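Assess this:
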Amino acid sequence: MRVPAPFDLDLVVRSHGWYDLPPWQWDRDRKVLARPLTLSTGRAVSVQVTTRGRDGLAVRVSSQGRNSAAEAAEVRAQLRTCLALDEDLEPFRRRTEELAHRPEAGALKEALARGAGRLLRSPTVFEDAVKTLCTTNCSWALTRSMVGRLVEELGRPAPGGGRTFPSAADMAARPERFFRDRIRAGYRAPFLRDLARRAASGQPDLEEWRESSTPTPVLAERIRSLSGFGPYAAEHLLRLLGRHDFLALDSWSRKKLARIRGRKRQPSDRTLERWFAPWGEWAGLAMWLEVTADWHEDEPSWP
């Protein structure tokens, strides 16, 4: 499977924490990304992806029985979504060139030249939305526990012993107490149930958001109409839809930006927005590449 140049699988996989959440698995030493996928036929397959040459990926699919040509094409399409291969970063590169006089532009230009800028996503907007809810107001350890229990309790078996991420219909069939008692989602329990029921009914059609031409502010309001989606959660989901107009600030990113730029006091959100305003619709991606730069050094920090 061909990829745009420049492309670095490790930079895309570790672009944020999703690779550390089931059902993703990342073997950093072997540079192999793996997970089960659910096809439109309902069949589960397990895939492994690794780099092949300078401009390609090798994909290995494990399944019960032989895959049809249509199923093989669907696997490739889902992987293109997950690795954001169809996202056009050229406008961001041009904007960074135009802003070369700014002190942060050099690091952004270098990151883009190495193949950074694409964010690992789930094969469905629904999965991204569920995982986003599981990141709100909690530690990463708790996020990982909640997502792990969702996969273990409701995921369907896949070849090789893994389990798929649960479907909206499977989650919608469970009462609120299931999410509170079994998933231990706390205050998120009714939000997870409501999200699943709305997604299963197609009201709204979450998957349509990936290709929607709706203006970003309007789409942001639609996301915020979902139970539990405040400004951070809505802007985080927009980021995974390839919409980078907003910064999706949380306590971690605010503190990190203050430290990176040598501020003794944490700047206000308005100040942070002003810092990245020159990048326009790419402001959020510029911020994210700056705040995560140390993840990809020779001795990387988290993740």
Observations:
- The longest strand covers residues 44-52.
